[in-house]
């Protein structure tokens, strides 16, 4: 009977600890994420959707803007998974590479910008708690993680360009490198 009681106590203790952690988040990280989302939506509303679209189109023109700037801006402004929608402004050939860079960026920036990937925030918070217990600053780690991530995301996107070219060549598939956008006026006319 003692084993059953101990198991039940431990099982309930797990949920009690989870509840305490959740309440801690409600007074610390949740307001920060909420305010970052408000800021993001305010910036998009202020700039306007058409300007955001123009920015994305301009970013698709070279490798640096395509795999450094566009992933950062779209992740910051739209968060995960909406950041992936900016690939609609890229030619078909560059979409796999953008996805590779963007998917990685949504993970590596979570410590600095928690609103980007709130679904995985618990992972970062667990790491940060361990770093803080060592007496270290978790923001230092978050900045380093993001900076290394930005470089690696860029490299990953660029390498995927070469991989895409190789797969296209070996399989006989031809992907366009031209941007083809349809506007709401084009859709209404069709």
Automatic annotation (TrEMBL):
Upper taxonomic classification of the species? Bacteria, Bacillati, Bacillota, Bacilli, Lactobacillales
Taxonomic superkingdom: Bacteria
Q: Which InterPro entries match?
A: PTS_IID_sorb
Q: Protein name, please?
A: PTS glucitol/sorbitol transporter subunit IIC
This protein's UniProt keywords: Membrane, Transmembrane, Transmembrane helix
| Database matches in NCBIfam families | EII-GUT
Record-annotated membrane-spanning stretches:
22-47, 68-90, 142-160
Could you tell me which species this protein originates from?
Answer: Loigolactobacillus binensis
């Amino acid at each position: 009977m003692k084993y059953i009681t101990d198991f039940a106590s431990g099982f309930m203790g797990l949920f009690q600890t989870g509840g305490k952690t959740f309440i801690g988040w409600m007074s610390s990280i949740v307001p920060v994420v909420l305010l970052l989302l408000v800021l993001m939506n305010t910036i998009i509303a202020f700039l306007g959707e058409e300007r955001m679209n123009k920015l994305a189109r301009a970013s698709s023109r070279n490798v640096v803007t395509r795999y450094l700037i566009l992933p950062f801006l779209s992740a910051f402004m739209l968060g995960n998974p909406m950041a992936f929608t900016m690939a609609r402004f890229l030619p078909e050939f560059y979409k796999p590479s953008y996805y590779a860079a963007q998917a990685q960026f949504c993970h590596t920036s979570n410590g600095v910008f928690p609103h980007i990937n709130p679904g995985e925030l618990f992972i970062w918070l667990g790491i940060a708690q361990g770093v803080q217990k060592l007496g270290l600053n978790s923001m230092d780690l978050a900045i380093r993680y993001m900076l290394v991530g930005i470089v690696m995301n860029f490299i990953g996107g660029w390498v995927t360009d070469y991989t895409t070219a190789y797969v296209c060549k070996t399989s006989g598939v031809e992907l366009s490198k031209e941007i083809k956008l349809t506007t709401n006026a084009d859709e209404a006319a069709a």
